Every structure is written in C-alpha cells, then in structure tokens.
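This is your field. Have a critical look at both lines of this record:
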Amino acid sequence: MTALRHSFIAGIGHYVPSRVVTNAELEPLMNTSDAWIQERTGIQERRWFEEGKDTTANMAANAARKALNMAGLAPNDVQLIVFATLSPDYFFPGSGVLLQRELGITNNCPALDVRNQCSGFVYGLSVADQFVRTGMYDTVLVVGSEIHSSGLDKSPEGRGVSVIFGDGAGAVILRPSTIEGQGILSTHLHSQGEYAEELIVKEPGSNRDNRVQNILDNKADLYPYMNGQNVFKHAVVRFPQVIKEALDQNGMQPADIDMLIPHQANLRITQYVQHKMGLSDDKVFSNIQRYGNTTAASVPLALSEAVQEGKIKRGDLVCLAAFGSGFTWASALIKW
C-alpha cells in the first residue's frame, strides 16, 4: 500500500526591523505608562519599520531567504507563494507578487494572497498543505509579514490598540513527505462573521460612492478599532476549542503537546489558555514581550525563534493556534 503524501516544514526563518520601540518611548506620545501596558498586554517593547529600508514584501523576503537556506533550496525551487498579511504594500496588487520579485524568482510560479489577519498564517499553512498533499506542488513558500506601525493612532485616543502592535515577518518552506506521522498532521479553520466589526480597520473601503472623499471625511476609520473586552472573551474560548479539535482528530491529549505556539495577541490570553490546557511553562512559547502583536507574522516568527533557540526538536508534537479579526480562528498540529 502506498504511503499517503503529506507536507512537512523543511525550512523556517524570521525577520524583524532593527528599530526597537520601548514602552517608555510611547509614554509621552500616548499618555500611558510602561506599567499600564505590561499589566494589560505583557508587552515590553516592539519593532517598528524604517521607511526606505523595510517593506512588507522585503521583510518577508528576508525571512524567506533564511527558510530557503535551511531547506537547502534556491528561490527558483519555489512552486507556489502563499502570502498572509493585512498590511500589503499596495491596495493592489498583493504582496505575493512583490515577494516573488524581491526573491528574484523567474519561474512564473503563482502567488496567492491570504487576508485572514491574525489567523492568516495558519490559514495559509492549511492552503499550502492541501496543495502539497494533492501533489500539485512540491515546494511551497508560506509567509506572514506585517507593517502595523505606519497605520496606528499614536495619540492618547488610540493607545488601547496602538501599544499592542509591532512589525515583523516569518516564513516556512513546505515539502512533501511519505514518512508516516511526520509533518503537518491536520489543520482546522473557522470563522464567525457576525463579529466582523469588533476588530476592524474600516477604511479605505470600496463600497463608498466617492471612496477618496469618504476617507478625507472619516480619517479616524483608517485606524484600527477593537472592542477589547469582546475579543478577549471570545479568544479564551476559541483557542482551547481549536487546539482540542486538532488533538481529538489525531487521538491525542494536551499532555502530548511538546510546544504550543499561540498567536501572540496578548500575554494574558496566552496564560489563560496555558492554564486551561494544563500546560507547563516550558511547553508554551511567548515572545510578545519583545515584539508585540505582529498579526499574521506572529505565529511563524514565534515558531522560528523557538526552533532557533532549540526549544523544538525532531519528533516533538507542535501545535499552532490563532484567533483574531473576522472573527477567525485556526490550529495546526505538526509532528516536527
């Protein structure tokens, strides 16, 4: 009997801008304090891009080159790009084709852009996994990259949201395997659109008769809005649910997890989920303290750092989980 084909992560990498922005730097801008930010989010600092140096696409390219190098591959080996971001370089085209150009890929491979915000990378990983499983592609590059800092309200009115977000990128290379029990075991995707406006950037929207004038008249809608209480309330339910769903499908228990990589939304959410799942500190990876919430980049960035630091080894059971705007939530269970 022929072994079923599935995908595994052959390479991984990440990139963050060099500019470090501490909570102390935000205090005079937003009439806030380091203690207030840490108490509510766990964040101590974040990275902000440098204009003229960093773009959403070239940050992704920096992360992708590291992933390709680990996998022992060249850019032209990539057969499909899946690019997750809520902060593309342009309104259109998407950043996937810009990444293709940045990497110097000349094989005309397709580039697919994913707009699922905080769940974007896990959604993208699931899409890529299906392409590899069916045999359509052998080498898929999946990235999450974000520049939030240029679109934040850096005034006291915006502090509840703006202290949370940072910039960065992460990337993985998926390749096929027929080794039983290796690689991506399953992925699980969900959404609940009735809460779409609870975490939203409303403008620029296309359903306005004169969208440019509408933006000029409603500049506040260019900034993120978040109903923090409601997002927290749903996140602490959906995270454990989608992790359990992945474990149940594979006949496993929380105790089988060697490393949980949650979307770095809020340290309080991560700690709640950790307690709910009964996981020890060494089985949950958090880097929100250093980078803030980098949305679609947060899961691959954290996964890359965990691998780099030797906290994930071959044979480990790794669970990725995310929740965010939409609402959307997702998980992936991986045998490393």
About this structure: The longest helix spans residues 228-249. The domain at 183-335 is CATH 3.40.47.10 (Peroxisomal Thiolase; Chain A, domain 1).
